[in-house]
Amino acid sequence: MKTILLSGAISMIVALFGTRPTITVLRKRKLGQQVRTGANMPAHMGKSGTPTMGGIVIIIATLIGYTLGHLFTGDPITASGVLVLFLMTGLGLVGFVDDFIKLFMRRSLGLRSGAKLLGQATVGVIFAVLAIHFPDGYDLTPASTHLSFLADFGVSIGTVLFVVWVLIMVTATSNGVNLTDGLDGLATGASILVLAAYVIIGNWQLRNDCTTALAQNCYDVRDPLDAAVVAAAVMGACFGFLWWNAPPAKIFMGDTGSLALGGALAGLAIVTRTDLLLLLLGGLFVIITMSVVIQVGSYKLRHKRVFKMAPLQHHFELVGWAETTIVVRFWLIAGMFVALGLGIFYVGWFPK
Question: Contact at 8 Å (CB) between 71 and 46?
Answer without folding.
Answer: no
